[in-house]
TrEMBL record:
This is Adiponectin, C1Q and collagen domain containing. GO terms for cellular component: collagen trimer; extracellular region. Pfam families: C1q (PF00386), Collagen (PF01391). InterPro entries: C1q_dom, Collagen, Collagen/C1q_domain, Tumour_necrosis_fac-like_dom. Residues 1-25 form the signal peptide. Residues 108-245 form the C1q domain. It comes from Pavo cristatus (Indian peafowl).
Length: 246
């Protein structure tokens, strides 16, 4: 009953406050809830929850520029960047100093000297140059068929060889260079058979040197032979010239 009477009394006071005369001197109207509170105070309530944060305020004005700080430590080296575009060509420089003279190179000219000849007569005379008059090759005419000698016109290293048919008797031949025998070949004839004798050599020749082949000894060692089906040949050619002289 006491609670109901209090509620009715509070309601009556609220109606009187809404319909009362406004007082000009008062700035604020009395709060009806305060009237009720003054009439009957309740127990204090629990604190309310924190409200939502307010919105950020406007940015303030920039402050004055501070003093320059100390330099920082040098950072780590960065990765190498991509290669840039090729720049424009610079101006042409001045000619450099003349270089040292290079070593002497090989001559571009091709030196040629070669011959290949065969025997046309049987049993050439001993102890004189054998005259090979059958020409297979003698373009430079360095072999003389009239003397049976090769005449060196280009100093250098030469290769010589001979291949002889042996018939009727033994053969002793030698290859000469400037009146001196260089190599000797001997073949003993076998009866009722055709044999072969051969030899070869490398020689260094100077301009004017002569090379030839001849039978040495007595006439019974002159079995060098040739006919229409058997050849006895003599040949030679330049391997390489002396570049210091050309």
């Amino acid at each position: 009953m006491r609670g109901s009477a209090g509620f009715l009394l509070c309601s009556l006071l609220l109606l009187l406050a809404l319909h009362g005369t406004e007082v000009a001197a008062q700035d604020d109207q009395p709060d009806p809830k305060m009237l009720c509170a003054n009439w009957m105070g309740g127990a204090p309530g629990h604190p309310g929850h924190n409200g939502l944060p307010g919105r950020d305020g406007k940015d303030g004005k920039d402050g004055q520029k501070g003093e320059k700080g100390d330099p920082g430590l040098q950072g780590a080296r960065g990765d190498t960047g991509e290669k840039g575009a090729t720049g424009a060509e610079g101006p042409r420089g001045f000619p450099g100093h003349m270089g040292m003279k290079g070593q002497k190179g090989e001559s571009a000219y091709v030196y040629r000297s070669a011959f290949s000849v065969g025997l046309t007569e049987r049993a050439p005379h001993p102890n004189v140059p054998i005259r090979f008059t059958k020409i297979f090759y003698n373009e430079q005419n360095h072999y003389d068929t009239s003397t049976g000698k090769f005449l060196c016109s280009i100093p250098g290293t030469y290769f010589f060889s001979y291949h002889l048919t042996v018939y009727m008797t033994d053969v002793k031949v030698s290859l000469y260079k400037k009146d001196k025998a260089v190599i000797f070949t001997y073949d003993q004839f076998q009866k009722n058979n055709v044999d072969q004798a051969s030899g070869s050599v490398l020689l260094h020749l100077s301009s004017g040197d002569e090379v030839w082949l001849q039978v040495y000894g007595e006439g019974d060692n002159n079995g060098v032979y040739a006919d229409n089906i058997n050849d006895s040949t003599f040949m030679g050619f330049l391997l390489y010239p002396d570049t210091d002289d050309h």
